[in-house]
User: Fold these one by one.
Assistant:
Number 1:
Amino acid sequence: MCGEKQPHHHDLTLGHFFHGLFHELAHVDSKVFRTLRDLVLRPGELTAAYFAGRKTRYIAPLRLFLTLFALQFLAYTVYKPVAIYSMDGLLRVDSTHRFETLLHRTAAKRHIDYAEMVEKIEHRWQKNMSMLNLAAIAGLAVWLKVLYARRRRFLGEHLVFSAHYLSFSYIVTLAIWPVYLVIGIARDRSHFVLLAVTSLLLCGYLYLAMRRFYQQGPARSAIKAVLAFAGMYVVNVVIMVCSLLGAVFLTLGV
């Protein structure tokens, strides 16, 4: 075509092909490395850079969020001993066994095989969770909009910030996955200690990210970080409960 450079015979050689392939892979790898490095080591930097016009340096917020969510969802679903998004994992942490008893009674009442019923509920629950994962971004963003109502920030700014923060939280959950392989997932002391340490890490990161992006003083940022973290916890619980209840109702036809 007019104006385009015609390929030279050198461009068609095998060496040139691999040189171009290496260049493309190196470019992708550098963007991935830069994104993960700044996401972990420089809280709030990705969001600030995004709205400063430096978007091309990093992976897009939504793509980053979806990729990391898929990885942590897979990690905590496939291997049953450390599965969270599974009925086995849910019933294992239910020390009262009330939910399991209710499922047994429902299966007997409806003359349904218990194992088959649980498998169907689990499948629908995991499907619902994968479909509702974007609600976590929206829920946290709306809560941030309330917390920063006086700053007149656009909802889009909170959405990007939420995507980056939740992406970091998924990195943390992936990082502690090997620990759960050793100690298991149960309501014991080690589990609560790990949960406390993880919560402090996530809340501390949130404080630093909010200070960098929203540029408020230490005291206000600390208070809002605690409130935002509590709001995020509520949003995640609501999403998990709604997705599970939806799976139960759809499976049993309630």
Number 2:
Amino acid sequence: MKHTIEAVCTGTARPFNGAETSAIAKRERDGDVQILRDGLAPDEQADRRHHGGPEMAVHLYPLDHHDFWRDRLGDIDLLDQPGAFGSNLGVRGVNETQVHIGDRFRVGGAVLEVNQPRKPCWKIEHRFATVCESEGMVATIVKTGRSGWYFRVLEIGDVAAGDSFERIETGHEAWSVARVFEALMAGKAERSELEELSQLELLAPELRQKAAEKL
């Protein structure tokens, strides 16, 4: 699996909802951007309890999903932005059914490892509410599994638009991002799946713990 990175996006924490701030609005960067252990530099997360850190270092929300949302929300300018959903990387031709927990990708000069789906939150709907009727977006993500995913960083390096996005190693083939999302975020896991997820070595520790607690 080899694709081209169409955009590299970072953000800064800005006023978002009253006194609350958010860095969900990621903007395209020109030239090389460093990928460090905690993510792109510079790239901020306003809520460090739920976002950022080594287990949520880099986020990818597939650009093909923007077409899905355009059919539902209308042809709004916000969907022309690769970082509209908080994604750090703009990539087409890859989705949650094709990517597995533990897959390793060479991203420019860095190596990243897929470790968890993204859990959708109210900030997605709030961001789009300024330009369209956004109620129900989170529910639609849960229903369709269009979640995007996070990477941890195995090797730091630089990345720029135009670089390759290439899978160099396949992880847990039985556990696509889509299947993990359906099991843990959509709450459809069988007991045997929860047992397996609780021991899935390359899954983010927080989700392994979540699976164990559900048992």
Number 3:
Amino acid sequence: MTLTPPQRAFLDRRPDTPCLGFDVEVVRDRYRALAASLPGVELYYAVKASPLPEVVAALAEEGCRFDIASVGEMELCEAQGVPGEAMSFGNTIKKTDAIRHAAKAGVDHFAFDSEEELAKLSEDAPGSIVMCRLLSEGAGAAWPLSKKFGCSHERVTELLLDAAAAGHRCGVSFHVGSQQMVPEAWDVPLAQVSLIAEALDAAGQRLELVNLGGGFPSRYVEPTPDVDRYGEVILEAVDRHLGWLSPRLVAEPGRALVAEAGVLVSEVVLASYKEHTDGVRWVYLDVGVFTGLIETLGECIRYPIVTELDGTPTGPCILAGPSCDSLDVLAERSPVDLPLDLREGDRVALLSTGAYVSSYSSVGFNGFDPLRVEVL
């Protein structure tokens, strides 16, 4: 993986560590590539992936819309000049005040997956487009999603018929899991969406919108299918299952737009062997699970790593963070090959750290400062 000139200049400048350098121009490039691969699909950036004002501003300039999970994210978008009608409230779990606040600001797309949430929407966002979330297993994803969100296609049908009766326009949303490595993963939920659409049609109602969700991957350590492959496979599946309906299509990319924009520079705190016979060193960095790298839990995400000693002999290393907590281990089941001469004070850069890093950093666990971010 190649660093951009601004990212390389950031590392050469040797900022105090840990620090995340973020190249917004990468976000623009990734947005254009994904938009080109999904013609006719409206893209709503999942703000939670990297809620930097500069990211929102750049994507707004590109014509992107925004998927928000809270009033705080809505206000962040508003501060960058994004109108409410360009936002979708994708969180299925919302306080009544949040729904009321968003509807007043012009937000008219809301996700839900229960009759209780639908009742709140009917009361405080009448006539809005409501997207009932379909349960998806997430097989093939680095972060498969749990049963916290979504319900069966039979239940989605029942809820959307209730929504239509309450005066809402109807949509379906689903999510195939974060960092989805299998482009064909969208096929099964789209087949279920077709069943929902047919049931609504038989009842005299129309499924107006299909939200393809997120899951579009970024490049980390494992080879990733090209973005054009995702567009080709997904749009073919849409045509096969829903060509008769021609619904409005939207998607909610997050990681795919911002991950490669980030480079996280860290410093070695300690490199040591537990036992002389182990053959595997422990390398502790000044950044870890609680300062932004929570996606390394379970080694779900493995970041590409470059060091100042690349090109010298390497050996297997267990990578860990600096906190006094046993969860703060970044790679143990699959050790990382790192230079054997790494010592305290040497610099290590983790690439593709633009997504779900700065926003996941704790506010001061163990007394460590929150992760600093520099927009390049």
Number 4:
Amino acid sequence: MVALGLDKDGRKHILGLREGAIENREVCIGLLEDIVRRGLSINRYYLFVLDGSKALRSAVSRMFGNNVKVQRCQQHKRRNVLKHLPQEHQETIDARIRAAYNMATYEQAKQSLELTVKYLERLNPIAAASLKEGLEETLTE
């Protein structure tokens, strides 16, 4: 498991590395505790972008409280949806999801994603369920 941080210039920095399962809460807590021990302040404002791991989400809440912004990774969500679709539909659906994520407001993006879910329900119910699961968590207000 790797924790990356972005500086003000958009450069990526490896903050921590931990061997173990991402669904193991203790592994996730250990990673965050190590990052804090090495100097990351728990009193600053952060946006955590996570892959959907419930254990990691729980560890972030435990270490940083419930007032931090947490967003599910949009790239992971797109990949998870597309893997359920035949090749001939992937480009169109990916374009719809990307367009929603690029909308100006939370409400516009949510509405667009919900329309894509409805479209997918007719095309591929499993892909629709994949997009619907945690949909609001992929958006940050």
